[in-house]
Amino acid sequence: MSETAGISTGIAERYASAVFDLASEGKAVKALESDIGALETAINESEDLRTLLTSPLYSREEQSAAITAIAKKMDLSQTTANVLALLASKRRLFVLPHLVRVLQDRLAEARGEVTAEVTTAKKLTKAQGDKLAKTLAAQVGKTITIKETVDASIIGGLIVKVGSKMIDTSIASKLNALQNTMKEVG
């Protein structure tokens, strides 16, 4: 992990802890969950928003005004709007994508869920996804939410990450292992 990513994650974890505690105390966890989903979608879909978050060309005042307008337009809860305004005033909007991920993890943990990051060569069908979630839930002992990524370069199979565990059954990794074995043989 790069130094900048480590700093962003550390800052995001502190803010996420505070935001989650505020939402829990104010009985606003559902609103926070809705806000985080909306923010994730906006960050993923809007190049302009990503530029606003990371560009040093915008002044503190411009960032504050823009993020306040965005929060109002998205109809975000007061807690989330206040956090965004605070991030803008401290010139820390760049941590927002990390903050969203950390809060998603906290919210899932509060619901007793674990997110499994699954990489496949082709998109899983609904039945395949359900069967995989059920199998993983039996192994982990918690409800599983699957976050799927499609990557044709793995050729076939799956790469599954649950917490700190990773299972790689992709054909690409098997081919790499075979190639390394053949190099060792001579």
Model description:
The protein contains eight helices and four strands. The chain is an alpha+beta fold. It folds into two domains: 3-109, Peroxidase, domain 1, CATH 1.10.520; 112-185, Glutaredoxin. A four-stranded mixed β-sheet has the order 2-1-3-4, sandwiched between helices. The radius of gyration is 20 Å and the shape is globular. The two termini are 35 Å apart.
Structure summarized in a few sentences:
The chain has 186 residues and is α+β, with helices and mostly antiparallel strands. The protein is built from eight helices and four strands; from the N terminus they run ααααααβαβββα.
Pick out its properties.
186 residues, alpha+beta, Peroxidase, domain 1, Glutaredoxin, four-stranded mixed beta sheet, 13% strand
Gyration radius (Cα, Å) is 20 Å
- The count of domains is 2
What is CATH's topology name of the largest domain? Peroxidase, domain 1
Average of the residue pLDDT scores: 92
The tally of beta strands, per DSSP, is 4
Which consecutive residue ranges, at least 5 long each, have pLDDT under 50?
none
Largest sheet: 4 strands, mixed
- Report the sheet-strand fraction: 5-15%
Helix content: 55-70%
Q: Termini distance?
A: 35 Å
Largest beta sheet: what is the strand line-up? 2-1-3-4
Alpha plus pi helix count = 8
Q: What is the ordering of alpha helices and beta strands? A: HHHHHHEHEEEH
Shape: globular
CATH class of the largest domain: Mainly Alpha
Helix/strand structural class:
alpha+beta
Known CATH architecture of the largest domain: Orthogonal Bundle
Report the CATH superfamily of the largest domain. Answer: N-terminal domain of the delta subunit of the F1F0-ATP synthase
